[in-house]
């Protein structure tokens, strides 16, 4: 069978693919020119919903409610939007072979595709305990969360194990959000992680102390400084206990593992230049191979503001990198120039009644301000990171939209801040001055 040919092909049907499709339509794409090939069964959706409202016991989010681009306040792109715009949405189709020199792709179902321009938007996959040789890690009711099927399995288990015991392995944002979601569903929740505090890649010890205290007040038990080394099962293969490195054994009806993710670059190994675990791009998301772009979680791109190459595994970057790549493709077709991507890192999370945002770089000395007492009626606090006498990053819990905008501005402008005591005293009003 002849390969289906498209001018533009996007591999992956996640956040970046959805925002890229919208940008193509904005800038003009003819019917039949663009195809999105996705392993998932559904049109692109806002992935962060899976660990938040998707798991609520009441008023839960379900598709089509959170298809892109609602997460950033845009129009919701339903499956028919793609057909109305002449975009081929090829679902349930995994690309298993990519020959970039021949511009040819093949799927697990033996379909073949060719393209003029390729956008790689394959995102990340979760790290699995089985790959680290953890004993019993393939037991039933041990879950991971990346795609909607995973979330459905967790919802099913929550219903099957009402008031049961859940152990969350991992203290990153997935672990923290899942612990909250399971607690809201009335399970007994224990979190286990090896680090001295949660979210150590972003949180300072002081920030983490607030969230750990808040979680303890909600009845979540946190065990730090040790790891899961094995799982016990019953005679039908369901998990019954988590064994820890320090000898403790935790009863468990459900285990959710959130120990990190890795970018899905395997298809392109040896064909593109990689760096920092991702596909290296320039400031337009062009890879080392002509006419091949990489966006979202897989791209290692120049963070212009900090003069360094980095990967960013967050939704805001997935959206913006996709839009920038499409703008760059369209500009080059018109022989025009586009500015390089100039991204201010932004990450957020929500759990229980909490909601935080972080902008910039979490490097240097820190100053904490505000009310960080986890037992306060309405705690509200933040942190600035100061490097070379300038504020380079800002974090805020419980900020209003205006306040979040203010900390974003500070992180972008990097104003001088020599006196840390003064900065602490001024707190949020420092950011509001700019
Ligand atoms: P993805 O959205 O992961 O999309 C990749 C797509 O490619 C998937 O559809 C996948 O099936 C498909 N694919 C992969 N390989 C192939 C193949 N070979 N053939 C065909 N299709 C393929 N970020 C935040 O900033 N804040 C949050 O609160 C937050 N919450 C999150 C909660 C969860 C549960 C998860 C998993 C992530 C969360 N993130 C959050 C991160 C954010 O969702 C990702 O950074 C973002 O989705 C990356 O977009 P992407 O398009 O690069 O990848």
UniProtKB/TrEMBL annotation:
Highest rank taxon of the organism: Eukaryota
InterPro entries for this protein: FAD-oxidoreductase/Apoptosis, FAD/NAD-bd_sf, FAD/NAD-binding_dom, FAD/NAD-linked_Rdtase_dimer_sf, MDHAR3-like_C
Q: Where is the Monodehydroascorbate reductase 3-like C-terminal domain?
A: 344-431
- Name the protein family: Belongs to the FAD-dependent oxidoreductase family.
Name the UniProt record assigns to this protein = monodehydroascorbate reductase (NADH)
State the needed cofactors, names only.
Answer: FAD
Claim: NAD is one of the keywords in the record: yes
GO terms for molecular function, please? monodehydroascorbate reductase (NADH) activity
Name of a matching Pfam family? MDHAR3-like_C
Q: What is its EC number?
A: 1.6.5.4
Catalytic activity annotation: 2 monodehydro-L-ascorbate radical + NADH + H(+) = 2 L-ascorbate + NAD(+)
Q: Which UniProt keywords apply?
A: FAD, Flavoprotein, NAD, NADP, Oxidoreductase, Redox-active center
Name any GO cellular component annotation: cytoplasm
Residue ranges of the FAD/NAD(P)-binding domain?
6-321
EC main class here is: oxidoreductase
């Amino acid at each position: 069978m002849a390969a289906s040919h498209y001018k533009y092909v996007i591999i992956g049907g996640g956040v970046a693919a959805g925002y890229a499709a919208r940008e193509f339509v904005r800038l003009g794409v003819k019917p039949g020119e663009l195809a999105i090939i996705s392993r998932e069964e559904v049109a692109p959706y806002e992935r962060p919903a899976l660990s938040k409202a998707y798991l609520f016991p009441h008023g839960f989010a379900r598709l089509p409610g959170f298809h892109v681009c609602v997460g950033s306040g845009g129009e919701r792109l339903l499956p028919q939007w793609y057909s109305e715009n002449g975009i081929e949405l090829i679902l349930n189709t995994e690309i298993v072979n990519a020959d970039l020199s021949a511009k040819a792709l093949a799927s697990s179902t033996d379909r073949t595709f060719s393209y003029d321009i390729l956008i790689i938007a394959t995102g990340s996959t979760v790290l699995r305990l089985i790959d680290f040789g953890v004993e019993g890690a393939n037991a039933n009711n041990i879950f991971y969360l990346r795609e909607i099927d995973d979330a459905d399995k967790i919802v099913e288990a929550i219903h099957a194990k009402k008031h049961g015991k859940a152990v969350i392995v991992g203290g990153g944002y997935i672990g923290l959000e899942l612990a909250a979601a399971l607690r809201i569903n009335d399970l007994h929740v224990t979190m286990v992680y090896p680090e001295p505090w949660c979210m150590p890649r972003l949180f300072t010890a002081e920030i983490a102390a607030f969230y750990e205290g808040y979680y303890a007040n909600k009845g979540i038990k946190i065990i730090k400084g040790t790891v899961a080394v094995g799982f016990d099962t019953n005679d039908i293969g369901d998990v019954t206990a988590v064994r820890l490195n320090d000898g403790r054994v935790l009863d468990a009806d459900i285990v959710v593992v959130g120990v990190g993710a890795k970018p899905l670059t395997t298809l392109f190994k040896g064909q593109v230049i990689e760096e920092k675990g991702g596909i290296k791009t320039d400031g337009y998301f062009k890879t080392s191979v002509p006419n091949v772009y990489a966006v979202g979680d897989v791209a290692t791109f120049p963070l212009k503001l900090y003069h360094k190459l980095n990967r960013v595994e967050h939704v805001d970057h997935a959206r913006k990198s996709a839009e920038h790549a499409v703008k760059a493709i369209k500009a080059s077709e018109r022989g025009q120039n586009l500015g390089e991507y100039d991204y201010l890192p932004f990450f957020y999370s929500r759990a229980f009644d909490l909601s935080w945002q972080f902008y910039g770089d979490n490097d240097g000395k820190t100053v904490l301000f505000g009310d960080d007492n986890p037992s306060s009626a309405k705690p509200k606090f933040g942190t600035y990171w100061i490097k070379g006498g300038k504020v380079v990053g800002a974090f805020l819990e419980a900020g209003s939209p205006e306040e979040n905008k203010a900390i974003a501005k500070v992180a972008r402008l990097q104003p001088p801040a020599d006196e840390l005591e003064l900065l602490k005293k001024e707190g949020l009003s420092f950011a509001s001055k700019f």
